[in-house]
Amino acid sequence: MSVVILAGGLGTRLQEETSTRPKPMVEIGGRPILWHIMKQFAHYGEDDFLIACGYMGDFIKGYFLDQYNLSGNLKIDFGRNVVQREESETENWSVNLVDTGLMTQTGGRLLRLKRWLDGGTFMLTYGDGVSNVDISELLAFHRSHGRIATVTAVRPPARFGGLVMEGDMVRRFTEKPLSGEGWINGGYLVFEPEIFDYLSSDSCSLETNGLERVAADGQLAAYQHGDFWQCMDTLRDKEYLQRLWDDDAAPWRCWDAGSQGNRFRQLPNDKAA
């Protein structure tokens, strides 16, 4: 099954990082967040990726070319014009990088990828957020209801800690809760090919022009994920994810036995993003 990753946006709210590289290439733990997303999908056996490039797309292409060409040891024979590699460590992924335009909207980017998809069920997510959603359970849920689309509904972390008061007295501070006030689109979508009937041009939004119409037709189901999810919209978000990784508490790291994801804890309020 193909996994589409939308990786072409400008990342304007993270300009401290995105002035020199696209947001999916901003690093957490020394690796682009795009790599973290792909590692999670691959852990569940989904390793056929279709990446929609746009802003600074050559940067993303260069990263994967370097991963392929420069991993392991190299022996260069200049006289014979031969390069030999040994002990190369690369992921067992198929990665298709497609230019989808600089200013194309999310629906338009997906529409441009139609000819690279095989006409069956596929998944889609955004290149700037991580979660510990169980991909296998998500797919099983999608197959169970027979609709065109499934969206993973998440509760975003609240931005601020709270106060516990008795009358006019503050008794203690609370950490940021893991859940915000309402459900939102957390990405990790599953689509049937009929989704393309709702997309028309480069200027269409997957969310507004696509998903809202799918929902109005009774064809959009929600897989409710009440556990960890975090986007990387701002520098504070990025620093928060980095701290989770550094503190051995990254819940999305499912690909290692006894991984960090099994030991997730919320950081204290004075450290959270």
Within CATH, the superfamily carries the name Spore Coat Polysaccharide Biosynthesis Protein SpsA, Chain A
Residue runs with pLDDT of under 50 for 5 or more positions: 258-273
The secondary structure category is alpha/beta
| Separation of the first and last Cα atoms | 34 Å
Report the helical percentage. 25-40%
Q: What would you say the CATH architecture is?
A: Alpha-Beta Complex
Overall 3D form: globular
Overall tally of domains: 1
CATH topology: Spore Coat Polysaccharide Biosynthesis Protein SpsA, Chain A
The count of strands amounts to 16
Order of helices and strands: EHEEHEHEEEHEEHEEEEEHEEH
Report the C-alpha radius of gyration, rounded: 20 Å
Quaternary = single chain
Measured by DSSP, the beta-strand proportion falls in: 25-35%
- Give the count of helical stretches: 7
- Overall mean pLDDT score? 87
CATH class: Alpha Beta
Instruction: Give a short account of the largest sheet.
Output: 8 strands, mixed
